[in-house]
Write a structure and sequence with these properties.
The complex is a heterotrimer of chains A (190), B (52) and C (530). With 190 residues, chain A is α+β, with helices and mostly antiparallel strands. In chain A, 43% of the residues lie in helices and 29% in strands. Chain A has a 5-stranded mixed β-barrel with strand order 2-3-4-7-6. The N and C termini of chain A lie far apart (147 Å). The radius of gyration of chain C is 25 Å and the shape is globular. With 530 residues, chain C is mainly alpha-helical. The longest helix of chain C has 44 residues. Classes of the chains: A alpha+beta (190), B mainly alpha (52), C mainly alpha (530). Chains in contact: A-C, B-C. Chains A and C meet through helix 2, strand 2, strand 3, strand 4 and helix 4 of A and helix 3, helix 16 and helix 17 of C.
Chain lengths: 190, 52, 530
């Protein structure tokens, strides 16, 4: 009896091992499949704005990586947001959920260089959801480089030009009015 | 009928404002109607996919 | 012999005196032209006050200083012109025409200084190009890094289109002119001929009142829409003002490099559409509408002409886009296709696609529809460009009239009538004038298109860009850029100028300055023969 029990236990152990191994394989497979969704994907093609515009049909519907400076406004529309990202040549509109918007400190304008962001998402040549706009529906956004304030100090030589031309304009206007009065007086005497 | 200048001067400010407002609204309606007509043409072309 | 010699000498002195007198008159004429040009420049210089205040308000002190420098420069030049050429002679019709023509050249040379000082341009020619584009309400741009431009410079850019749409000379008339009869020539020289009131100063003021009324209404509408679409209040206000100015003046400038595409908003596109359609209407029509004659909007030959051409071109544009399946949904077809066609027909130039997409995706039929729309343009005496729907209507009526005349006995009197603030009879002189203007437009369009081809651009793109510059539209397929050859930039500058002023002031200016050289040639020939 105990021999048969031992025999049965011995037979069950390989099955358990096989089951455990299979279970581990399945978990590994599932995680492996899901991994690209959660992690940074190094195989996405990095495109420029000019490439997207000039070869829009080629990139239409494809998942791409796009980098550039966030400019202007972050426009909230319900649970989503529009940002425009400039890569030096042109700016592309990026549509992404509010939850994915990174902590953007600076957007490009006169007094600031905007944060540089990396976007992953599906490019649309003529987006059906957005009235035919060329845009990227992003599913990943991260800040690559923080933006900075841009100062525009007053230049000394320009200050001198301002003063000089200001004085010159006052003198010329004064001289003009004087000449006109002289002409009027001369005509009235005639 | 268009108001002559002297009739305009005889109107009260409220009536003048109302007249101007109606004029602006008329122009807005014109532009929207024109837009709607052209959208209809786009819809017809899109729907029936005319080919020559 | 002695009598002959004295007679000969007398004749010689008389001829020389007459020639000298003629030269003296020409110099006097030049003085009058330059004097009034100086006055307009002084008037225009006060426009700097607006961006200066914006610069102070936004803390853009370096930009504020640039405007002070530019103001000083313009005032000095204007005052010097007035001082050197001081006169109290009244201008004649010719003086008015020539002044209206050349003051635009002075303006682009003098008032481009803020652009140059901003550092956003690669050359002064580019600055002058953008100045002409703004003043003529074209909208083609060579500015670089527009997204990082100061708010004050953006205000200057958009203010130029707003003022240019009404007319810079009209502005000066409204403020400075002393209301004598020859003021009408200044007014007509800027491509306007509708006299809303007997007094041209009153007409100019009335045009400005209408524009300011719509400025308030339109800015509020765009600002509310902007806030709704996610802009902050401050940004919505400034963008509202700028987009209104560009839409009303059918200028097409926008504060961001993506133009109206930046907003990704159906609502903003819809509001801007309403504004630019209204902006393309005749000022006389606005005057009639706000004074109670609202039915004129529908009866008017110009609006009927625009409705007809817009509908026909919408059909061809839609068909062309549909053929290549460019836009898979009706909404996209309307928001992209129709919006651009309307933008072209009113000569606004707002874009919601990239220039490269127009060139590569739209196909020839859709692009041709846009080119034709650009050439036709909007209404006369409006902010719109092109050779005007009115002339299309007149030429069409002329064809109908001639066809009827052929079908009737030769002694029958056949006259076509049309509705234009009352019923009017079509005259041969109107047809002649309309035909000539259209011919001149087509001529300069062809010259610029050929120049574009010679620069290496494809035919359809060259034609598109040429129509855009000539019709003062502003849509682009990517040809207009700072890397364009300089000669092409200069040709486009000329076309924008000629298209805006409808040739009269240009021809008057060429004739006026040309007479200096032909006059001298005649003088030298006479001296040589004596």
């Amino acid at each position: 009896m105990s021999n048969s029990m031992n025999y049965m236990n011995n037979c069950a152990r390989p099955h358990k091992k096989a089951r455990a191994f299979a279970f581990f394989l399945i978990q590994f497979f599932i995680i492996g499949c899901l991994f690209p969704v959660f992690a940074q994907d190094d195989t996405l093609p990095l495109v420029t704005a000019d490439q997207l515009i000039d070869d829009a049909a080629k990139w239409d519907g494809k998942r791409v990586e796009f980098e550039g400076e966030v400019i202007g406004d972050i426009m909230a529309r319900g649970g989503y947001v529009w940002i425009n990202v400039l890569d030096g040549d042109s700016a592309i509109g990026i549509w992404l959920p509010k939850s994915l918007v990174p902590n953007i400190r600076f957007t490009g304008q006169y007094f600031a260089k905007g944060d540089k962001v990396e976007i992953h998402g599906i490019m649309h040549r003529a987006c059906q959801d957005h009235g035919g706009d060329l845009d990227i529906h992003a599913d990943y956004a991260a800040i690559l480089e923080e933006g900075t304030k841009v100062l525009h100090p007053i230049q000394r030589d320009r200050l001198w030009w301002g003063i000089t031309l200001g004085v010159a304009s006052i003198l010329s206007v004064g001289f003009w009015r004087y000449r006109e009065r002289q002409l009027l007086l001369k005509r009235s005497r005639e | 009928m268009r108001m002559e200048a002297q009739h305009m001067r005889q109107l009260t400010p409220t009536k003048k404002t109302a007249l101007v407002f109606r004029g602006v609204v008329a122009e807005v309606i014109f532009s929207l109607a024109l837009g709607a007509l052209c959208v209809l043409i786009c819809a017809l072309v899109f729907q029936f996919k005319f080919s020559f | 012999m002695r009598i002959d010699l004295r007679l000969g000498l007398s004749i010689q002195v008389l001829v020389l005196d007459t020639t000298t007198m003629r030269d003296k008159r020409k110099l006097d004429d030049l003085k009058i032209v330059l004097y009034y040009s100086g006055k307009v420049i002084i008037g225009e210089a006060f426009l700097y006050f607006v961006p200066f205040v914006v610069a102070l308000f936004r803390g853009e002190y370096a930009s504020a200083l640039d405007f002070i420098i530019s103001f000083g420069f313009a005032m000095t030049i204007g005052s010097l012109l007035c001082t050197v050429c001081v006169t109290n002679r009244k201008p004649s019709w010719t003086h008015g025409m020539v002044t209206s023509g050349i003051v635009w050249i002075f303006s682009i040379a003098i008032f481009a200084l803020p652009y140059w000082l901003s550092g956003h341009y690669s050359s002064y020619v580019d600055c002058m190009f953008d100045m002409m584009s703004g003043l003529t309400t074209t909208g083609l741009v060579l500015i670089q890094d527009l997204d990082h431009v100061s708010d004050s410079l953006n205000m200057w850019r958009h203010l130029l289109t707003y003022v240019g749409g009404q007319g810079i000379v009209v502005l000066a008339l409204a403020i400075f002119y002393d209301n004598s009869g020859t003021g009408y020539s200044f007014y007509v020289g800027e491509g306007k001929d509708e006299r809303l009131f007997p007094s041209v100063t009153h007409t100019a003021k009335s045009i400005w009142k209408i524009s300011l009324l719509y400025l308030v209404v339109g800015t509020v509408a765009l600002m509310m829409t902007g806030i709704f679409e996610g802009l902050s209040v401050g940004r919505a206000f400034f963008h509202g003002v700028w987009i209104f100015m560009a839409a009303w003046s059918t200028g097409g400038f926008a504060p961001m490099s993506q133009n109206v595409l930046y907003y990704h908003s159906t609502a903003i596109e819809a509001v801007s559409f309403v504004i630019f359609i209204i902006g393309s209407l005749n000022f006389a029509l606005h005057d009639a509408a706000i004074k109670g004659d609202r039915k004129e909007i529908w009866r008017n030959l110009e609006t009927r002409s625009m409705i007809t051409t817009l509908c026909v071109l919408t059909f061809f544009m839609s068909w062309g886009l549909q053929k290549f399946n460019v836009y898979p949904s009706l909404m996209a077809l309307v928001r992209k296709g129709f919006y651009h066609l309307a933008s072209a027909h009113t000569t606004t130039g707002f874009m919601t696609v990239y220039p490269g997409q127009l060139a590569k995706e739209w196909g020839d039929v859709a692009l041709l529809a846009i080119i034709i729309a650009q050439m036709i343009g909007g209404s006369a005496c409006s902010t719109a460009g092109g050779f005007k729907g009115m002339r299309v209507g007149i030429l069409f009526k002329a064809i109908v009239q001639d066809a009827k005349r052929l079908l009737h006995p030769s002694n029958a009197v056949v006259n076509e009538k049309y509705s234009y603030h009352g019923t009017r009879t079509l005259s041969d002189s109107q047809v002649h004038s309309a035909g000539l203007i259209v011919l001149m437009y087509v001529f300069i369009f062809a010259v610029a298109a050929v120049a574009g081809c010679m620069a290496g651009y494809p035919v359809i793109q060259s034609a598109f860009e040429s129509a855009s510059a000539t019709g003062n539209v502003g849509l682009s397929t990517g040809v207009t850029s700072s890397s364009m050859p300089v000669y092409l930039k200069l040709i486009y500058i000329f076309n924008m100028w000629a298209g805006r002023l409808e040739f009269m002031a240009i021809l008057a200016s060429i004739g006026f300055f040309g007479s200096f050289f032909t006059g001298n040639k005649r003088k030298r020939a006479k001296e040589a023969s004596l």
